[in-house]
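Recall from the previous chapter that SMILES is a line notation for molecules. Here it describes magnesium ion.
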Amino acid sequence: MRFGGLTAVRSVDFTVNSGEIVGLIGPNGAGKTTFFNCLTGLYVPTEGTVAYQGKVLPPKPHLVTQAGIARTFQNIRLFANMTVLENVLVGRHTRTKEGLWSALLRGPGFRKAERESEARALELLEFVGLADKREHLARNLPYGEQRKLEIARALASEPGLLLLDEPTAGMNPQETRTTEELVFAIRDMGIAVLVIEHDMRFIFNLCDRVAVLVQGEKLIEGTSEVVQADERVIAAYLGEPFEGEPGAAEAAEVEAAEAGAAAADTAGTVATAKAAATATDTADATRAGTAEGEGEAAEAGAADVEAAGSADSTEGETQ
Ligand SMILES: Nc1ncnc2c1ncn2[C@@H]1O[C@H](COP(=O)(O)OP(=O)(O)O)[C@@H](O)[C@H]1O
Ligand SMILES: [Mg+2]
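With both inputs in hand, we obtain:
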């Protein structure tokens, strides 16, 4: 994956098997999030393909979700003014026939699917420990609980592979421990997990395998023991201290580029505009709908998503 002259990720070859927890570590700017963005169709890789269960995935976020890959974001992306339960319901739309708009507008013919979806959403909230907060607005949750809500929302699409981008960032040690247990429980449900994290104790405790990314290339991949003992890993880490979250300027730049990539993606066709209108799991898809806005469905969709979109991110509060 290249951005102008910068190659963010180069020839990274990666396999995650079902029932496995695999860690992806590396210094800030190593290309870890970019790798996730390539996997989930937010970025179209300059070269190379992503295959899931033997099938090459088209670089479209909603198709990737449908195929069974779900993710959480380094910069939390929740619908801040929706309730906890509603956020999880939004995550279910790829698995219900009715789709997002029906789910949000509670249109006719929606009742049965709604009941089933709600039951499943509550089950997932129970699973992550947020059931008693289901009516709270997402924005009012403490940071650690927002991260758990993101996980519940990702699980709502019933994935076979879950990608977690720094799930414990900003958590206290107690929250980190419960997140660790949560990830083990997710693995035990038969879901493969690929997790990016800076907390080495968390990673080496959790993962069956760990891959180290440095300057966009895979330095080493192996068991926790092997990777921990590798001198190059130690050197890479000592050479470049972690600084926590990326700067606001960088985050804004990345956001803008993502929006651009998604907009370019729609190529102005009504079919993709429609897809953009029904996509939910990324703010980018909604922006694409707004940017292109072709056809009536897209127009209506774009307007509605905008309404939700204006409140869709808690980044400002959480960074
Ligand atoms: N959309 C983008 N446009 C330009 N450069 C980008 C974009 N996304 C990421 N980068 C650059 O790619 C490199 C890898 O970034 P990232 O994947 O966020 O690293 P990590 O998640 O490992 O900290 C960085 O130099 C970053 O500035
Ligand atoms: Mg990152």
